[in-house]
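DM from R.C. (forwarded with permission)

"hey, sorry to bug you on a friday — could you get me a structure for this? deadline for the figure draft is monday and I only need the backbone to look sensible"
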Amino acid sequence: MRLLCILLILNIIFADYGGGYAGSGFRYGSNARKFSLAGALVADKTPGFYAFSNPALLQFSIHNHIGMSFQNMPLDRSIQSFSYTRRLPPSAGVGLAVFRAGTKNIVGRDTMNKETEIFSSSEIEGIISFGVALGSKLALGINIKAFSTFFNDLEDIDASGTGIAGDIGFIYKFNRRLLLGGVIKNLNAKYNWKVIIGEENRSYVEKFPQNYIIGIAYLGLKGTSLFFQEDIMILPNDNVNYRTRIGSEFRFANKIKLRGGIKQLLGALPAGAIMGMNIKPTIGVGVPIQVWQKQYIHLDYALDLGRVGEGLSHLFSFSMEF
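My reply, with the result:
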């Protein structure tokens, strides 16, 4: 137990998460519940958004689900996601999902640092998912992903990147209260870039980091669920980064859920930087809204406190079973 605590502390202090590499927009978070629990949901299901956490969770699809998320953030950033999950009796599920991350009002500059034009950038990911239970303990799942990125409003330049990748996930149920989950993400993920500048054509490949994720969900406390997740990221230069995530969800008698978590920030700090607490808190709430009889729309909200003084972000997600 002492060794586990030491490793956890070292991971939080010295780990990094691989920002600035290809596909970083897809790692922000697909929905408000996941964000408010620090992203520690590889072993727990969020109705309407199973595929974004772990495709093996699709085997929990007792009903069909639709999920939508809208996230408008400072610095002209935005994220939207949509997911549809369909139950496949007796113990499987299939899903379709789309994720978009974009930035607008980017100021272009030339080699003399003079402003040239205002443009925007978008990354879009489409996912086909399948998950199935293999007995009462084990479930497996797979994502097939296609993604693209492009720039708008650029004069004399046409730049776009496309790629195909996969995820493989599993869920192991020790019992109904304790679940272990894991995912290998971004298998063979890369952008195949095509850039046209005037009459000149260029092409090159930009690889994604590959993620190995392991985590647990403990649902045995009365009214409270606990989540722990460790991300291991292999960067294109073969460096290894880690990220620890811890979340907790408290359920009130009226079915409202209060959520909170912590996740590590940076490990590699610039020269001269002052080392402080290398964690970021996350908070949120979930509210069921009855629309008719026993039919509910689940509204989830998360507050992103920001990292470098960019301002607050308000994240909203909606999901419904039918």
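R.C.: lifesaver. The longest helix spans residues 2-14.
me: no worries. The chain has a mean pLDDT of 84.
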